[in-house]
Amino acid sequence: MPKPSSFHTIVADLERLLTELRGMGHLPQIAPFLSDLEAAVEKIRAYKVEQMAHQAASRRATRQLTEVLADGRYTASRIRSFLRGCLGHRNEELRRFGVAPSCKRGSRGASPPKTGAY
Question: Could you list the residue range(s) of the whole structural domain that residue 53 is in?
Answer without folding.
Answer: 7-97
